[in-house]
Structures are given as structure tokens and as C-alpha cells.
Amino acid sequence: MKFKTLAPLKVFLLSIFIISQLSCSKDSDLLTDFVLSETQNTLDLSELILDDTFIVNSRESITLDVLANDGFENIESVIITETSEPENGTVVINTDNTLTYTPDTVTETTPDEPIDTTPNSNEEIEDTFTYTTEVINEDDTVSTGTGNVTVTSENKAPITGDNVYYVSTTGKANNDGRSEATAWNIQHAFATAVAGDVVYVKAGNYGAIKVASSKSGADGNPIKFIGYSKTPGDILATNGPTFSKDQWQANGQSFDSSVMPMLDWNPTNFKPVSGDDGISIKHDFIEIHNFIVQEYWIGIDVWSDNVVINNCYSDRAGDWDPNGNCYNGASKLSCTNNNGYGIRFFTADHGTLKNSMVIDAGMISVYILNVDDMLVENSECYTVNTGNATDYMFEFAETTNSIMRNCYAERTHTLLSAHTSRLLAVKCQSTNNLIENFTGSRSKIQIVGESNNNHFKNISISGQYAEFQIYGNSNDNTIENLEISGGYGISFLGWSGSECGYGSGQNISSGSNNHFINPIIYDQSALSGNAAVSFHRLNGNVSADAGINYVTGGTFYNIPRIINANRSGTITFTECTFNNIYKELDGFNSGFTNATGNYIANYINCSFSGNAFANPIGN
């Protein structure tokens, strides 16, 4: 075999190339080291810090080594100088540059006191905070950086312990309640539990019984009644009910007692009367989780402070007569039972209702009455059967400083009935409430009866009867990001005063200085009276002015008219757009005599296109 040798010149050039490559690689490494060193010494150290996530047991402190995943070359030269304050716990900087996080639910005890192992909630709680690091450089300059920490507390109630008891459908009052095998009955549990106790109630039909609280819990040590299916803690509601309306429908329009405990009045031969309430809470600091109550006068009735109702269900509250022609789906205008509350909070401050559902309450599904500092979230209400539509699905009455968020209401049927329903009413001097992320179908929202300074944000309603009404001298409310598709639009109405038991009769202004910001109203039918904004009377020949109110940034399209007016009032549109609208004004009066006075509409920087009328100018 012959080898072809390289010419001397070629060998020399190849050697120079290899040496140059090795030299460049080394210089590159040196340059990289220099850049890293310069970055750590002079730039914001946040470039070297990675976010941290930890999962902890809510009843225990935990040590967090937040520097372990950061990109520092000399970790011993790094100092944690400060942290921000987390919302649900405390943080301490340790001498070894770790952090100790302690959830708020831990309580200090003395050697003679029992250790409380009951968390404040049966859900996950996420906490966040920041930490600041400091490095002293060789030239005595200081570099700092900030990192983010997320701590998730699993926060589950204990299933064993001196304060844990069990209830089953076969339980007995003379059992010790320490296990399923020796469970209490449910009446004994409600009569016996004290502050700090956790009572697990197994799924099953507990029959036509009524239960009531007998003792109060304490701040940080509530009494908890927690329903479960097969294993304690196996039902966890976080962003809404765990049982759906579709499941209720598929189960023969009934909730399922194999999923969670059920109280079932079952009025086969009799109907409930006043006082036939499923669960009655008249003591403070009590929590009810994962319960079903069917066919009671009131499903769950709360009369005390600091009560939590979570993932609970009420069906057919009120005097639904099983022998009458209004029961279970009859479509008749005469079906007006006018009673029945699914879940009621009455003079019950600092309460929480979440992840719950009410179907076919006779009068009001969720009734928040004379309450301060209430939270209603992730809950749903439905009126399904046509014999009698629920009159109010969510109602705040005489309620202040409260929040409703992420809730849904639906009038499922479209047939005419005695109650055309309200998705939501804020009424009777309710003030300073926040309603956000509310969605509803086939009915209306109302601000009624001297209810002022409420804020509605991100509201979407659709379908037949969809409408946003203001009446009864209600002022200074803000409605932000309202969407109405189909239905009737925004209405300023008259008021008789009868809904709240006070007022000066029928000659009351709708209210003034109410601001609609960025509303979208579209796809209305061509029915008489349908408009973006209406000045209507609710009943009688109301002659009072509809008030002076404002719409800013609105979008209106595919609707029959901008305004329907049969009473005087002033509306100012600013920077609104109007498209594909048939008429600017109509005077449809719903059978009532037109009131005296003229409406005034002001248009400021508005745009019009594709409409069947000349563009309005000014007012």
C-alpha cells in the first residue's frame, strides 16, 4: 500500500491552524470566566437568582434553602439581608442563610396545653414573598439581587386526633365517634362538637331530619363539619362546585347521596312549612363543607358571624306541593309559592359562601341579608323547572362592604312564568360592595332601592330577558366591562318602594351619577322598547326623572335603537361607537301614559356607522 505524503509547506500551514484553534479556545474560556466574574461583581445579582417553589404542611414551619438553586460561584460570600412579608405567614432569616417559613395557622402552646392540629381551611393556600441577597465585591462595592419564593400550604384537616370525630347514617349517640365503626349520628355531632373539633360526615342519605348548631367555635379554632365520600378529605372544592347541574339533571333532577352526605325532607305526602330548615347555624366560627339539603323551607340558614359554607347544595327549597299542579315542571302563571331560600346569611357578618350551588329555590337561591363583610365566590344558581321560576338567584339586601366574584346564574327555561327571575339584585341600601366576574343567562341584574357606591366589574349576561336595571334612587354606582347580548340593554326605571319596605311611593328618581364604563350591547331582537338605554317606568305612572347618568367607551351594534324613553332623564355618551342600529329614539311606553318632560342625550366624541338615521350631533 502506498501513502501519499504531504508537502512540507502544507504540513507547516496545518500546524499553524491547529495551534491557533487551541489558543482561541483557551482565550474564549478566559473571556467567559471574566464575563461571569464581572457579572457577579458589578451587575444586579438577580440575573443569578432563580425562583423557588415549596410545598409544606400548613401546620408546620419549614426551613427553606432558597440559595441552593441560584447561580452563585462562591455561595459563602452571599448574605440574605431582608425579605418581604408574606400574606399568610411569617419569614425569619437564619444565620446559615436559610429561611424559616411559618404559616399563620400555627398557634403557640404551653407544655400544659394541647397542640391544635386543625388548619383554618380545607383548601390549598399559596403564599409568596421575596428575599434580597447581598455580595461584597473585591473592590468593596456591594451587589444586590432579589428572588421570588412561592409556598403552597396543603392545609388539610387531620383525619385522626383527639379533636376528630366521625358520623355515619348508622351512627349512634352513645358511640365515642372516634372512627367510622363507632360513629355518632348527625344530630348528636351537631349537639356535641366544640371549638377546634373536626367532624367527618360520611356520604349517605340521612333522611328527613333537621340539624342545628349548639356551640360556637373560636377564632382560629372553628367547629368543622366536613362531608366525604369514601375517605376523609376525598372531596376538595377549589374553583367551583364539585357536583354539576348536568350531573343533577342526569340523576333524575336530584343530587347524589353516594357522593356526599344528604339531608332529604322528601315531601311525598306533606310539604315543608316555615321552620323546616335543613341546617341551621346560630353560633359563630362554624364551617360546613360538602353537604346536600333537598326540599326544605330553607336549605342552609346562617344567623351568626364568621361562618363558612363550602361546596354545599340546595334543591327545591320552599313549599313545593307534590300534590299540586305547580310541582316539578308545570308551566303556569299562577304558580307563585313566594317562599323558599336555598342558602341564607341573615345578620351574619364576616361570612364566606363558596363553591356552592342552589337549584329551583322557590323565592331566593342565595340570600345575603343585613350583612357586612361577606364573601361569595365560585358559586352557581339555577332555575330549571317552569312551574315557578326562582325570583332572585343571588341577592344582596341591606348588605355592605362585601364581595361577590366568579359566580354564575341561569334561568334555564324560556317559558313565561310568574317569576321571570333576577340573576342578581343589589338592593335596599346595599353600599360599597364589589361584584366581579359574574356571568348569567336569560334574566336581569338590578341595583335597587337607594343602593349606592357599588362596583360591578366584568359582567356578562345573555339571552332572553337579559337586562341591567337601576332604579329607586340608587346613585354613584360603577359598572365596568358590562356585556349584554340579546335581551333589553340598560334601563333606568321607576319604583314603587314596596320591594324594600321604605321610600316615598312611586315618584322616585332612578338615581344619578351611575357610570357605565366600556359596556358592549349587541344582537337585540327588534321588539318594541328594546334599546341600548331605556328610561322606563317599572309600575304605575312614575313621573320622576330617570336621573343624570353616563356611558363611556361603549360599543353598541345590531340593536333596534339607541334610546327608548317614556320619562325624562339625561344620558351622556362619551367616546362610544354605534353601528347597524335602526333608530335613534323610540317612545314605547309599555302601556303606561308617558310622563312629562323630555329626555336628553349627549354625544361626546362618538362615532356612527351603518345606521338607519342621521348621525346625532351634540345633544
Structural commentary:
With 619 residues, the protein is mainly β. Helix content is 8%, strand content 38%. The strands form 3 sheets. Strands 17-19-22-25-23-20 form a 6-stranded parallel β-barrel. Strand 8, helix 2 and strand 9 form a beta-alpha-beta unit. 44% of the residues are buried. The N terminus is likely disordered.
Major β-sheet profile: 6 strands, parallel, barrel
The count of helical stretches stands at 3
Structural class: mainly beta
The CA-CA distance between the termini, in Å, is 104 Å
* Spatial sequence of strands, sheet with the most strands: 17-19-22-25-23-20
List unreliable stretches of 5+ residues.
1-6, 8-14, 16-43, 106-122, 329-333, 591-595
Name the overall outline.
flat
Mean residue pLDDT: 82
Indicate the radius of gyration in whole angstroms.
32 Å
Percent of residues in helices: under 10%
